[in-house]
Amino acid sequence: MIVITGAAGFIASAVAGGLNEMGRNDLILVDDFSQEQKNNNWIEKKYNQLIDRKDFTDWLDSNYSDVDFVIHLGARTDTTEFDWNVFLELNLHYSQAIWKICSNHNIPLIYASSAATYGAGEQGYKDENQLAFSLKPLNPYGKSKNDFDQWALQQEQKPPFWAGLKFFNVYGPNEYHKGRMASVILHTFESVNKTGAMKLFRSHRDDFEDGMQLRDFVYVKDIVKVIKHLMNTKPESGLYNVGTGRAQSFLELANATFDAMGKERNITFIDIPEDIRDKYQYFTEADMSKLRSTGYKEEFYDLRNGVFDYVQNYLIDNKYL
Q1: What pLDDT, on the 0 to 100 scale, is given for residue 87?
Q2: What is the pTM of this model?
Q3: Strand partners, 3
């Protein structure tokens, strides 16, 4: 059986669907399933059992002999949350408990790290394991992910294979529930439908024009492919970037969304909220050479093609992946 934590959430539900497509229906889905707004993410997936997040570590410690792989994608992902105790419990201690059980019982483990670990990018975006010890994340979320990366790298007892995936800016179907933390594509789609216009953050730095802040935007369908590849090949354990390797602007992204909707472009700019202004990343771009060195040859979705697929095949008809 394959365990997927965070299974009612955005990326994990897409992974569950991707495994179903491979004929893997022997899934154990782990999450807090009481949040009804997430139901459409998982309710039609094929699985063996649902496990509440609070009960999972006890369940895993008792049922380890039936588990082939753990894909741990459950986490608190709000970059605007500044209560460290929230992240300490859900992103650090919970992940440590899962790691220890997988190590004790020789279960391969893939877990979600984040590009937020890179902070302002002063040291680049190369996923070398040792770089984790000198990174300076800009918010508690990024710190919690980097703290776990550091902790994992220091453990003597490890799963037989493990990979910490540094997801860059992921977008795509099944993120409908994410509110403020949803992709700018979803926000643009909703704003255009309501007002015919979209507001992007203006730049508060002289070296970036308004809307030209750059991120590495990666389609969730590519995330699913990467995870399948790592599960099948089990290359050298460690940290892996998961982006496209190409930074593009929020303005390009918003324009592509207007175009996919067949609407006239209408974009204005607003200030970045002060509570996140000094923690805002102006540039991210994944160095993808490490993943490529494992034999991963798939081409990543071009941003415009990904946006068109997302808007026209999912958002317009409110469909799920």
Answers
A1: 72
A2: 0.94
A3: 28, 70
